[in-house]
Structures are given as C-alpha cells and as structure tokens.
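#help-structures
NK: newbie question, is this the right format to request a structure? protein is Vanadium nitrogenase
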Amino acid sequence: MIKVAFASSDQTHVNLHFGAAERFVIYQVAPGQAELVAVGEFVPAVMTGDNRFKDAPFDPNAFIMDEVSTHPDAVPMSHEDKVASKLEFLTGCAAVYAASIGASSIKRIMAAGIQPIIVNTGSAILDHLNEISIALTKGGLAWVEKAKAQSKPANRFDAIAEQGWNGDEPGSSAPQNAPSVTIQ
C-alpha cells in the first residue's frame, strides 16, 4: 500500500502547477483499491518562475508582466515558503502528480523522498490510480517498485518488531501456526 498525491482543483483531474497548487488530494493505493485519505488546501501564491504561464490559454494580444497574479486572494510569498508547507503536507507520499513542476521544486520533492510526476493538464486522477494499482501487482512503473521496496521491512525480525510481539514477556506465546525454525 502506498500514498500518492495529486495537484487538483476539482479532486478529479490533475490540473495544477505544483508550486501554485491551492489543493492536493492524497490517496492510499493498494492492488484493486484506492481510498481518499486527505485533502490539503493552500493559500494562493504568486507564481514567479518560468512555468507561471505554462497552463494559461495562449493570447497573442496579451503582454507578460512579472509578479502578476490574477487571483484576488493571492499572497506574495517566496518559492521556498510555498514549497515547504506543501512538502510537509505530502510527508509519507511515494509520489506527487502535477501539471507542471519547477526545477527547484523537483529537487526539493526528490530530497524529501517523493517521486515528482508531471502529467498532461486535465488528466483523470482515476486513470492514474488504476495505473498505480496495476503496477502494485504487475509492475511497470519504476517508482512504484521503489516505493514498494522501501515500505517492506528489511527482514522478518523487523516485521515481528513492528507487530510488537515479544516472546520473552510473561504469559506470551508464539502466534498460532507459527513456522518452526531449526538452527544448526
């Protein structure tokens, strides 16, 4: 089971730039199922990088101004501030899907152990969830394989420790149907 985030204004499509995203939805994905587990809302931020106009409709009569935001509630903030709060929300996610991600954000996302994935604006979250679910059982997505490997305990003793079983405690006994081990 892995957690995956999507930059989405409508919780149905990946349609936001990572840095300017006002909403992320996080799903817990397992083979054959996906469950919405969190929705994060963020204050609109002024976009300042090269990708700030990437998803805007082309208008040959328009002129480009630096530091322009058309959102009335937009708050000017540094790139680092808006990314830090988003990375904090995305803690524990294996990947984040967005319509665009700036180069410095990609570096910070990867440093946090999260795979950044850029997809076409408007792509359906359900399609991505299906692809991830299939990859969990059949493979095909390298980042899913990496996430699966990182989520597994290193050995069976780590798994026992995670379950909290301690055979040395008074009154404790081995679990029913526990495999026997012969050591020579």
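mod (FA): yep, format's fine, and the tokens are attached above. The first strand starts at residue 2 and ends at 7.
NK: thank you!
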